[in-house]
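Backbones bend. Our protein:
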Amino acid sequence: MNILNKITRDKRIEVNLRKQLIPVKQLEASILFERETESLAKILKGSKTGIIAEHKRRSPSKQVINHDLNMFDVAKGYEDAGVCGMSILTDAKYFGGSLDDLLIARSCCKLPLLRKEFIIDEYQIIEAKAHGADVILLIAAILTRAEIKQFSELAKQLNLDVLLEVHNEDELHKSIMPSIDMLGVNNRNLKTFEVSLETSKQLSVQIPNEFVKISESGISSIEAIKTLKTFGYQGFLIGETFMKTNDAGESAKQFIEDLNGFKTSEI
């Protein structure tokens, strides 16, 4: 059984339990449920850098990345650095995250927030909205075309942006529909955990131009971003590069300054 199947199996058990504990009506009564959302897709279209910075404590492939960083400091740091949006892992068992992380980030920054989660039920989309998310992630590898349509259309009803993640050509073709805003290509092979930017390059020509193209995983250099931009990518999801340092916000700030080719202090 590959890791994605294992995570999805555990996620179904977890979500069924949560549904019993907190009914949908309670989520819909949240103050944040009525909040006006920010469109990450729109921001990326007008951005020179396209950086989406991630908060991730650990992962199945790398184990512990950083358990010491304070969520409040990371969110504020990313915002001060000038990133376009922030991705927050809310899975507890495999990534050490929680919905509280989303709430804390929402309380201290105005960035568009992506709930990065293994979504297998409409309930999780309502949860995302109730906890201050602006964007949800749908993973093509664990969903049918019918589920992608159902979940993405619900997200649009809630004014949430939808980032659809693919790993190969088959996943891409089953995912193209009007209710998707952004198509993300994950450069990590989920069976071997090997990372190759060739995945983004190869799939780029098959992504219709109406979607914002995002490259995910294995992006750690300015050169990688400059190369991927020539393939039409407007967004770059970066996690471990910033999170493995002692100051994720400062690390993101330096990266963006290098990407822009100047110091922000010189503006």
Observations:
- DSSP finds twelve helices and ten strands in the chain.
- The mean pLDDT is 92.
- The domain at 3-262 is CATH 3.20.20.70 (TIM Barrel).
